[in-house]
């Protein structure tokens, strides 16, 4: 008997639930939209998306909802219309039983700012582009370069994320310059040189080599000695002198980040240039002696000619 009562209660509850669903659907078909509410989910002090702006964008596309039946409002059409906005990242549409149409949007979250020639724009993680504006600024990594479908700017995201997650590297790197896919240049806070990372892969070992070079070599060789430090090749660092005359390298063992560099490979012989300078100095020093010798020879020749003339005169007089 007790079990029968329990089963009866469950059946009644299920029937009520089903009836409620059908009633809600029936009511929603005749329900009219009384208001449109827009919520910006990730709004903050740097927001550039406002509820008024979202409604204005929809109205410009011929979408008005107030007074329309909820059944005639297509949520998918609203989402597609807002997806075209460069300022929005996500959209969610909710039809409320009280006649409200709730539009929830998330403004675009830039992860980098790109300077490409005379163009400047922000990018989110999906590669969606938003033109830079004087009315909005976001403190994100700066990237300079030209990108294509084969090599989009989002390919740099693993490298940028790694730098942003490390406090030391974050304070070191000021911007990225991309010459091509195999020459990604980092401009550090330390003035006087740039760092060539090569392609985007293997950046952890590359940064380990760079920091080792900073610790062991730069204090000895001088922070203004090199204009380019390249870590693009395996197991070595290539540093180019500011004069562009000599390329210096030292070997790096990725198995031991604390390995001291072989400073012998960093020493560049300049004896040839010194010898050339010494020769020039020797020539310059010898030049006065040569002139004196020539002057003496000339004087002797003049005296000899005078003596011959005197002999000739004496013969004639005799």
Please describe the topology of this protein:
Elements: H1 2-30, E1 35-40, H2 51-60, H3 75-83, E2 88-95, E3 100-107, E4 112-116, E5 119-123, E6 129-131, E7 142-145, H4 157-165, H5 167-172, E8 173-180, E9 183-188, E10 194-196, H6 203-216, H7 218-221, E11 226-230, E12 236-241, E13 247-251, H8 271-317
Parallel strand pairs: 1-3, 4-7, 7-8, 10-11
Antiparallel strand pairs: 2-3, 4-5, 5-6, 8-9, 9-10, 11-12, 12-13
Give an account of the 3D structure.
This protein is of the alpha/beta class and 318 residues long. Among the domains are: 1-30; 31-107, membrane protein fhac (Ubiquitin-like (UB roll)). Helices cover 40% and strands 23% of the residues. It contains 8 helices and 13 strands. It has helices at residues 2-30, 51-60, 75-83, 157-165, 167-172, 203-216, 218-221, 271-317, and strands spanning 35-40, 88-95, 100-107, 112-116, 119-123, 129-131, 142-145, 173-180, 183-188, 194-196, 226-230, 236-241, 247-251. The strands form 2 sheets. Strands 6-5-4-7-8-9-10-11-12-13 form a 10-stranded mixed sheet. A hairpin with a 5-residue loop joins strand 11 and strand 12 (236-241). The longest helix is centred in the last third of the chain and has 47 residues, at 271-317.
């Amino acid at each position: 008997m007790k079990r029968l009562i329990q089963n009866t209660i469950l059946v009644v509850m299920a029937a009520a639930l089903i009836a409620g669903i059908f009633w809600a659907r029936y009511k929603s078909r005749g329900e009219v939209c009384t208001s449109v509410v827009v919520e910006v989910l990730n709004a903050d002090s740097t927001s550039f998306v406002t509820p008024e702006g979202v409604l204005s964008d929809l109205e410009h596309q011929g979408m008005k909802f107030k007074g329309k039946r909820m059944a005639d409002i297509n949520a998918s059409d609203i989402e597609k219309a807002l997806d075209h906005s460069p300022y929005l990242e996500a959209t969610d549409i909710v039809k409320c039983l009280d006649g409200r149409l709730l539009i929830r949007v998330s403004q675009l979250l830039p992860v980098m700012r790109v300077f490409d020639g005379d163009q400047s724009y922000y990018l989110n993680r999906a590669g969606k582009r938003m033109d830079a504006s004087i009315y909005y600024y976001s403190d994100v990594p700066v990237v300079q370069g030209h990108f294509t479908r084969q090599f989009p700017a989002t390919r740099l995201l693993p490298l940028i994320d790694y730098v942003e997650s490390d406090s030391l590297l974050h304070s070191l790197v000021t911007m990225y310059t991309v010459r091509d896919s195999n020459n990604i240049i980092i401009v550090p806070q330390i003035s006087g040189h740039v760092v060539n990372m090569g392609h985007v892969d293997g950046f952890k070992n590359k940064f380990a080599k760079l920091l080792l070079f900073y610790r062991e070599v730069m204090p000895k060789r001088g922070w203004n000695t090199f204009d380019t430090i390249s870590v693009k090749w395996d197991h070595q660092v290539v540093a180019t002198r500011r004069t562009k005359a000599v390329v210096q390298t030292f070997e790096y063992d990725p198995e031991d980040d604390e390995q001291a560099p072989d400073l012998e490979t960093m020493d560049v012989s300049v004896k040839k240039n010194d010898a050339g300078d010494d020769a020039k100095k020797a020539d310059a020093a010898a030049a006065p002696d040569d002139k004196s010798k020539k002057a003496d020879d000339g004087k002797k020749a003049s005296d000899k000619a005078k003596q011959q003339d005197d002999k000739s005169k004496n013969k004639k007089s005799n």
